[in-house]
TrEMBL record:
Keywords: Signal
Protein known as: ADYC domain-containing protein
Source domain of life: Bacteria
PROSITE patterns tied to this protein: PROKAR_LIPOPROTEIN
Pfam families noted in UniProt: ADYC
InterPro entries for the chain: ADYC
Signal peptide start-end: 1-21
Coiled coil ranges: none
Domain (ADYC): residue spans on this chain: 226-415
Length: 479
């Protein structure tokens, strides 16, 4: 026990704390290149870092993004689907055409006429795919339509004339058994089409419901994801014009991990984004300036103090070199909890404290970039298993049990010279024989909660006495 306690910082063992000088926090520290070298003898160890976001950008808004569609920037709202940004762009009818006007005397009673149509709806599909659009009276596809409707399909969000610009296909009910038209066409490059319909005889009563066998019809929005988001512009909470632009997208299961072996995130549910600040200069500045220029979207927002907040207004873009992204890559992905934040979300938050050695729980890092640690957890099921006996590299021993506020209990500091005056743990009190009299693990200690020393020598003690679910080994490093 004494050996463990001598590894605690002197700041925890004495009353005078002024001798412990805290390092700069992320807001003031200059960004430095992250080291990602792994350990071939201990592939389960990870290199942690000092940065939280690894970018000054703290949040991206869900609302009023701009996406590239059909050669123009369109307003869209964003959402996170697991580890992927998804944009929903509202559809609308652009312009008009003579076929939407009322018919005069002598108008043709077929789909070629230039009047008597209405906009029936709009659909979305995969560009280049074959789309079937079929009519019915609203139930099964073979139920009869009223008024023997005619149908015309136009490219994009604009109505069109028969065989004119934007025209895709048309049909009447002459060759069907249920008096309903049916068409097949190739989905246009925009992935959007507009359907016009009307009665065979202009002015007659009619009824028809269209159904698509590919894509979605009717649709009120187009969803863009993956590489379709290249060129999208994202807003920050400060307001004003869009300040960030997605310049590239890659699937995380096809991108090599920056430490160890394997891919960045192999589940198939995560995308990485290259983002640049929108600028009039020929070379806009990248969002991520450390390591590789890729960011992962993460639910929730983090303050400069490292506190996590739920948000319906915005989400986090964590750059690869920051611990928000690192902890996500290690397996603590908040979307694993589902719609409601739960143990994995708390583990991710706890991991960000652990990875930065945020002993004070105030957003200040007491470590150095590239320092190896060996994390694991006690989740059910576990995400990172504990190290097998004898598997850890020489020099790595139990450091701490962690929670969302920082260390719940501590065995030693990661770096001897980075002592923390603000560690929110109680210092040990020694008797004349050098024994600790206020150990929280002692059921007979006369010191109550808030006065006993939060000391732990292993994960079992951290879990049993202090409720930790995230733990780590580290070396006792010296400069």
């Amino acid at each position: 026990m004494k050996l463990r306690l001598r590894l605690l910082p002197s700041c925890l063992a004495i009353t005078l704390l002024s001798a412990c000088a805290p390092p700069l926090d992320e807001a003031a520290a200059a960004l430095t290149q992250q080291s990602f070298r792994g350990d071939e003898d201990d592939p389960d160890s990870h290199s942690q870092g000092t940065q939280l976001h690894a970018t000054p950008v703290r949040a991206v808004l869900y609302a009023e993004a701009l996406v590239q569609h059909d050669g123009a920037l369109r307003v869209a709202n964003l959402a996170l689907n697991r580890g992927e940004i998804v944009a929903a762009m509202p559809l609308s009818v652009h312009g008009t055409t003579p076929s939407l006007a009322r018919c005069g005397p002598g108008a043709a009673e077929d789909e070629t006429r230039g009047c008597g149509f209405t906009v029936n709806g709009q659909g979305v599909c995969s560009p280049g795919s074959l789309v079937s659009l079929e009519g019915s009276s609203g139930g099964a596809l073979r139920e009869r339509c009223m008024g023997k409707p005619v149908l015309r399909v136009c490219e994009g969000e604009a109505p069109c004339e028969h065989q004119a610009r934007g025209y895709l296909a048309s049909a009447n009910s002459d060759v069907t058994l249920n008096d309903c038209p049916s068409v097949r066409f190739t989905c246009p490059a925009s992935g959007v089409y507009t359907a016009l319909a009307g009665p065979r005889t202009p002015g007659a009563a009619w009824q028809m419901q269209l159904t698509s066998r590919a894509g979605a019809y009717p649709a009120t929005r187009k969803v863009l994801r993956g590489e379709d988001l290249i060129g999208a512009r994202l807003r920050q909470p400060s307001g004003g014009p869009p300040l960030l632009e997605i310049t590239d997208v890659t699937h995380a299961n096809a991108f090599p991990a920056p430490e160890g072996s394997g891919m960045w995130e192999p589940s198939g549910h995560t995308f990485l984004y290259q983002v640049h600040h929108v600028s009039s200069s020929p070379s806009p500045a990248p969002l991520c300036t450390l390591g590789v220029n890729w960011a992962v979207p993460v639910k929730g927002l983090f303050t400069e103090r490292g506190d996590r907040q739920e948000s319906t207004r915005g989400f986090t873009l964590g750059c690869d070199a920051g611990v928000i992204a690192k902890c996500y890559r290690w397996g603590y992905q908040p979307w694993l909890d589902g719609a409601t934040s739960g143990p994995v979300t708390r583990a991710h938050w706890s991991c960000t404290r652990m990875a930065r050695a945020d002993y004070c729980g105030q957003g200040t890092s007491f470590t150095q970039d590239g320092t190896r640690i060996r994390p694991w957890d006690a989740l059910t099921p576990e995400i990172i298993p504990p190290p097998a006996p004898g598997s850890s590299s020489d020099g790595l021993s139990f450091e701490a049990g962690w929670n969302t506020a920082g260390p719940a209990c501590l065995s030693h500091l990661r770096w001897k010279h980075l002592t923390a005056s603000c560690v929110p743990l109680n210092p040990p009190i020694y008797d004349e024989q050098g024994n600790i009299v206020n150990d929280c693990r002692d059921p007979n200690t006369p010191y109550g909660p808030g006065k006993c020393a939060e000391i732990c020598d292993n994960a079992e003690e951290a879990a049993q006495h202090y409720g930790s679910r995230v733990f780590n080994n580290s070396a006792i490093n010296v400069p």
